[in-house]
Each structure stands twice: as C-alpha cells, then as structure tokens.
Design a protein that fits this description.
With 319 residues, the chain is an alpha+beta fold. It has 2 domains: 24-217, C8orf32 fold; 238-317, Immunoglobulin-like (Sandwich). It is 33% helix and 25% strand. The protein is built from 11 helices and 17 strands.
C-alpha cells in the first residue's frame, strides 16, 4: 500500500512537471504566428481574431499576440528620437507598422482586451546605454505591459513587446529586427533591474526603492533573463578603480549553467577590444572573479557568460 502511494505521488509529480513544461514551450505558437505574416489587408479586430483564435488558454493567446507584434511592428526611430508620441493609437500603429514603445504597449493592451484578457499599459523608465547611468530623465521614457492571468498577485506578468522586436543603433536612426522572447513573461527580478515604472503600483516582485537607486544600477543584457540574474555586485553601474589593482565582480544566477565561461569586453563601437576570458570561482549559484584594469581610461565594460552579454558597467580607471 505504501509502495502504491509513493508511485501515485511520483506519477502526479511527473504529470505536473510535464504539463508545466508543455505550457512553457511556445515554439508551436511562434511558428504558427510567423506563418501568418503581417496580415496587412486586415483591420485590428480581424488580426486579433486570426492571431488568437487557434489557441485555447490565456497564456497561449497572449504569447500569440506578443509574437505577432514583436515580429511585425518596428521601432519608429524618428519618433523615438524626437520623443513624438502623437500617432500611437492602435489602429495608427497597425497602419504604419511602426511606433514608439508607447504605441507598442497600447496595441498590445488593445489586442489583449479584444481577446478578453486583462492587460494594462505601464509608463516608466528604461536604461539602454551607459550614458543613462546616474542620468535621470525629466519624464518617463518608455512603456511596457502587465498582464493578469489569475486572481493571485503572483499571476501578473511583465511583457515588453517593443524591446522584444529589436533595437536601434546608438544614434537612434537604424532599427534592427531581432526577436527576443525573454521579454515575454519576463523574469521579474531581471526586468526590475532594467525597467522602473512611473507608478510603483506596477512594480511586480522585488524592485528598487527609488528612481535614483534604479538609475545607479548597471545595464542589464539578455543573458540576465536567460539565466535569471538576481544579485550583481557591485550594484553601482559606475565604477572607479586604479590601474593594476584587482577589482572584484560577482553575481548570482537562479538558472546557472553547467561549467560557465565568463569573458570581459572592454570598450564599445570602433574601440571595442577582444573578449578576455577570466578565471571564476563558483559557489552554488554565485559566480565571482577579479579583473585588473591596466591603464587609465574610461569605457564601458561588458560581462558575458557563455558568450551572451549579461551586465555592462561604466568604468573609470585613474590614479
């Protein structure tokens, strides 16, 4: 009898694990949505129905909306550079096929609403370059969404379809399409290192107490979502150190890979240097290493794990 009970519990656990894994595998949805194409001849209501009707659960419908928007709407470089949010209504975004992050979030909210899913657009702040560290803007600079799938507070999720669509160059003139699924039901800890809501009511999970604290943080890169970064040190994005003096870095990962390789890249753009492999110490989910900067200078320093960018600091080396 005892053996049967253990077997039943084990089977229940395995079944639960299988269902959870199946729910997290959205490749089938992504492939089906990509085959639909842009649906340029249809209005917003028809697009929403076409994209969502093949799927049953709320999370599947939300994924379909996310994938369609991120792969068919572009960031509007001119409007973003000019902080122009005049043409951000969902129908206008569908017509133009490009918009600011606010246009993305309003379109996402409307498509979810038409699919009977509660979704809100959130205005806030987003750091995208080392120039943003410790440089707080006068007003909110970005927008994203929060989606509710259940009654529990834990069933609110972050989505940033604009970030998932691709990126602009440093001059904000050229958009490069690059689908980033990390911004769907994004890891809340990593998201809060990169985003800060204008209204703290929409800060999901553990965030930072003030916008000043948020803007002092280092830049967060895609690997932070993949490996679920949750405790980088130093926590300040601007670092001052001396040439020849070892500087200590560490971070914790909830999804730490086996035998991780960590590299450091100095500089950016035309002045970027070759990646430098570092010797790490790994204790549980914490990875740490020392790095010595050789000469006086100031430049961005990117930490990569398994060749994926994780964190970016602005380092000033001087006597």
């Amino acid at each position: 009898m005892k053996t049967m009970r253990i077997t039943a519990i084990t089977l229940l656990f395995l079944l639960s694990h299988f269902i959870t894994s199946a729910q997290l595998d959205y490749a089938t949805i992504d492939n089906a949505v990509l085959k639909l194409g842009g649906l340029e001849k249809f209005n917003l209501a028809t697009i929403t129905d076409t994209v969502t009707s093949p799927w049953n659960s709320k999370d599947e419908k939300v994924r379909a909306i996310f994938t369609w928007i991120a792969n068919n709407i572009a960031l509007d470089a001119k409007a973003i550079k000019g902080a122009d949010n005049r043409d951000v209504e969902p129908e206008k975004t569908i017509q133009k096929r490009k918009s600011t992050s606010l246009g993305f979030s309003l379109l996402f909210q409307e498509m979810c609403s038409q699919a009977n899913i509660r979704c809100l657009s959130v205005d806030g702040y987003l750091k995208i370059s080392t120039e943003d560290i410790d440089d707080m803007p006068d007003a909110a600079s970005s927008s994203w969404n929060v989606v509710q799938l259940g009654t529990s507070p834990n069933e609110w999720y972050y989505i940033d379809a604009a970030q998932a669509s691709g990126y602009l160059d440093s001059k904000k003139t050229v958009f490069t399409r690059s689908f980033s699924p990390q911004y769907f039901f994004a890891d809340k800890t990593a998201f809060n290192l990169e985003h800060y809501p204008d209204n703290k009511a929409w800060l999901l999970g553990e965030g930072y107490p003030s916008i000043k604290t948020f803007y002092a943080l280092p830049l967060i890169k895609p690997a932070a979502y993949d490996y679920r970064l949750f405790y980088p040190e130093p926590l300040a994005g601007k670092i001052k150190t001396k040439p020849g003096a070892p500087f200590h870095f560490s971070f914790k990962l909830k999804n730490s890979p086996d035998n991780p390789q960590v590299t450091v890249v100095l500089g950016e753009g035309l002045k970027i240097q070759k990646p430098l492999r570092v010797n790490i110490k790994q204790t549980g989910n914490e990875i740490s290493f020392d790095f010595t900067f050789k000469k006086e200078d100031t430049y961005p320093v990117t930490i990569l794990i398994n060749d994926k960018p994780l964190l970016v600091y602005l380092v000033e080396i001087s006597e």
